[in-house]
């Protein structure tokens, strides 16, 4: 809305009118004061002038207070929390920012939500969507290059960066079900046709002569999940952190390139013909199969739960007056209807009923040993230990490059 409206006693005032009225009053006070000073100088009583002056000041303060009160009321109304603001709009635009591999799911879910909202509210919703590597997407939101209303990113630290920047209020993890995790997957190893290098386990990726494609953990959430899957497999096998460092270092010695995102890594493997093996999301490989390809892959029995969070960008929804729609969209993503689409496009469903459907039980076999971020102290501990400056991954990378 270009102009905020506030109604009191059946009389509408705009901010512009209030400001104009205050200016007029001040001009009147100045003229009044000028005449009073002249009268005083002509012998009229000082007492009369002082009284007039005080009355003028009292009136101006009262009007200023009224204007401030009205302005605060208008701002509160514009906060995005007032249902009437959304109800007054016929066309609503919602900005969704997500990581690259969710596009296929969102492309099928969004039209269903748009149709549902139109039927229930008689309003047209247009989605403006942006997909890319998770960390650069978060940075674009922070810098204002994309005014996201909703962010669905690869991992919690990317949303926490947006929170630290002041765009998302603390406590976003508890705002929605399942700690605001709306999609999940596990890691998979993809091989070439016929698997000529005989790659079946995590350990095979560290062998001499094996070329492995995985994204860069500095820019890609997928790559950090891949790193954690490798680390978890090594620690479960040996229980020795020094041996885990040695194993993961040997795997990265076999990595010829570090693409920025999971999608770029997938393209490098399938389209560019690079590597003997690709570490990827299971959902990305499932999607390739749905599109007619038949990639050869294995989901290791020792694996890591890849949990993708979602959040409302509070500052932007309040600016755009889209909080109600943004919240409804996220809640819709948790419904069986939306979770079924996630499952059909490669994600392991978080809805128990959908997960127990025979088609998905067969499609997503149970993992024998599945670790989570909580097993490693949560993301704050993980970030500091593995991915901060001079942490384990940085040391491994320097070792590989030397």
From TrEMBL:
Any single GO CC term annotated in Swiss-Prot or TrEMBL for this entry: periplasmic space
UniProt KW keywords: Membrane, Periplasm, Signal, Transmembrane, Transmembrane helix, Transport
GO MF annotations in UniProt: molecular carrier activity
Transmembrane segments: 46-68
Principal cellular location given in the protein's record: periplasm
Source organism of the structure: Brasilonema sennae CENA114
Keyword check for Coiled coil: no
Listed name of the protein: Sulfate ABC transporter substrate-binding protein
Subcellular location: Periplasm
InterPro entries registered for this protein in UniProt: Thiosulph/SO4-bd
Protein family membership: Belongs to the prokaryotic sulfate-binding protein family.
Coiled coil ranges: none
Lineage: Bacteria, Bacillati, Cyanobacteriota, Cyanophyceae, Nostocales
GO BP annotations listed: sulfate transmembrane transport
Pfam family membership, one: SBP_bac_11
């Amino acid at each position: 809305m270009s102009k905020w409206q506030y109604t009191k006693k059946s009389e509408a005032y705009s901010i512009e009118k209030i400001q104009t009225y205050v200016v007029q009053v001040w001009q009147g006070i100045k003229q009044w004061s000028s005449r009073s000073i002249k009268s005083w100088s002509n012998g009229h009583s000082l007492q009369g002038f002082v009284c007039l002056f005080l009355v003028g000041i009292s009136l101006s303060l009262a009007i200023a207070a009224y204007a401030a009160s009205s302005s605060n009321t208008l701002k509160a109304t514009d906060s995005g929390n007032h249902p009437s603001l959304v109800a007054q709009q016929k066309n609503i635009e919602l900005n969704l920012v997500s990581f690259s591999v969710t596009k296929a799911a969102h492309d099928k879910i969004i039209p269903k939500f748009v149709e549902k909202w139109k039927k229930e509210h008689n309003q047209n919703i247009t989605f403006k969507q942006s997909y890319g590597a998770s960390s650069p997407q978060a940075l674009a939101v922070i810098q204002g290059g994309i005014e996201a209303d909703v962010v669905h990113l690869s991992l919690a630290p990317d949303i926490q960066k947006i929170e630290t920047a002041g765009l998302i209020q603390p406590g976003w993890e508890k705002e929605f079900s399942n700690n605001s995790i709306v999609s999940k997957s596990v890691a998979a190893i993809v091989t070439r046709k016929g698997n000529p290098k005989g790659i079946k386990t995590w350990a095979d990726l560290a062998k001499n002569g094996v070329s492995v494609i995985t994204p860069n953990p500095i820019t890609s959430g997928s790559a950090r999940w891949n790193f954690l899957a490798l680390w978890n497999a090594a620690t479960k096998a040996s229980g020795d952190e020094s041996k885990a460092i040695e194993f993961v270092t040997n795997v990265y010695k076999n990595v010829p390139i570090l693409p920025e995102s999971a999608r770029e890594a997938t393209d490098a493997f399938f389209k560019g013909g690079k590597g003997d093996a690709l570490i990827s999301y299971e959902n990305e490989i499932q999607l390739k199969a749905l599109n007619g390809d038949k990639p050869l892959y294995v989901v290791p029995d020792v694996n890591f739960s890849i949990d993708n969070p979602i959040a409302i960008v509070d500052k932007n929804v309040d600016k755009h007056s889209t909080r109600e729609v943004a919240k409804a969209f996220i809640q819709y993503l948790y419904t069986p209807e939306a979770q079924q689409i996630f499952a059909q496009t490669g994600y392991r469903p978080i809805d128990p009923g959908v997960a127990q459907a025979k088609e998905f039980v067969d499609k997503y076999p149970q993992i024998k040993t599945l670790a989570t971020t909580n097993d490693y102290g949560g993301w704050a501990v993980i970030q500091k230990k593995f991915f901060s400056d001079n942490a384990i991954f940085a040391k491994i990378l320097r070792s590989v490059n030397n």
